Amino acid sequence: MLTTTLWAAQAVLALFFLFAGLPKIVGRGIDRWTGFDDVPRPLTVLIGIAEVAAPVALVLPMLLGRLEWTTPLAAAGLAVVTLMASGFHVRAGEWLPALETALWAALAGAVAVGRWDLLGTGPALAAEFLVPVIGVLVVALVVNIVAIFRAPAPARTPEPALR
Q: Does pTM surpass 0.70?
């Protein structure tokens, strides 16, 4: 049961971050993501590349049966970066996006702990604990995403024209 749950969580993480990273690289559709108006374009591209590389490292090594140790490291990296994004949203007063990124970080952290056995050492949690935690996190993410999409878009104030 734990293996199936971890694979499902990895697939959810991989799909989300793949579709979150591509607009940041391409530069189209980035207006749908809050907070990137103040981030320099090169940094946005770098974040996008990391968000596209992480799904590959989450799924591909385990599918190929080679370099499986990259999976918990990719999940831990996603957890750290996404938790840092939560701080960015909290500082900007964007509470629903802050909650969403914290939930993504928690899900990535749960995958990292669940797959840590691939490294031979590290934290271990019983499947009886980890499976329900991942289930609750996925449900919380769905509820939060629905709340974000139902919330009215913040009004953007036009910048004054230069004279």
A: yes
